[in-house]
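Example record used in the benchmark description.
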Amino acid sequence: MRITVLDPDKERGEAACAALRAVGHRCTLAAHPGAVPAVGSGEEPDLLILDDAAGKPAVLVGGLRRTYPALPILLASSRTAEDEIVAALATGVGDYLLKPARQGDIVARVQILLKRTYPEQHADRLLRFGRYAFETGAGCITHDEKSIEVTQKEFDLALLFFRNLGRPLSRTYIREMIWPGESELPSRTLDTHVSRVRSKLGLRPESGYRLAPVYSFGYQLEQLRA
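Model output (structure tokens):
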């Protein structure tokens, strides 16, 4: 999804964008309301993160609503008084979080607000493979109910292997499924992603799975025991 972070603090805004890009979103930084991509530009946001350092939320949201009447807005606020938070929500803000916010909290709140605003596009399907569970709508993986932090590409790659458990997958097939249209993808990019998936999910013999290279062909995920 396309997300715009409206924040005059470039360093803070770029950190939020980096976290959102890591889970598959397209993110742009706007230092002021006039820099928010215009409707019809092809880059107009599906969701806006508004930092209250950019100005008074009620005023900013009022102006944005004239251009984006249904745009979901996540407010990042330093205001802790309950009446101020209620006032912000009354302006049309969909959700809020208090600063300083951890990047993981920002990503989680964005995912929740997107799912609430665009339910058809974010319908969750829970797929289970033994002790691993994949939540397709949120792009989340858990092992024994413990969350594993992965990027969207790592999620897609891990799910591809589990859906083809015991089947050798060629490098070409993997590239076409995970990086469609990128015929010139460097070989090391694929290998690096496979290595990260193996490490983050613990896909080694001691866990009952083995994600291993198939010589001159590709990779295969094997289940070693029930």
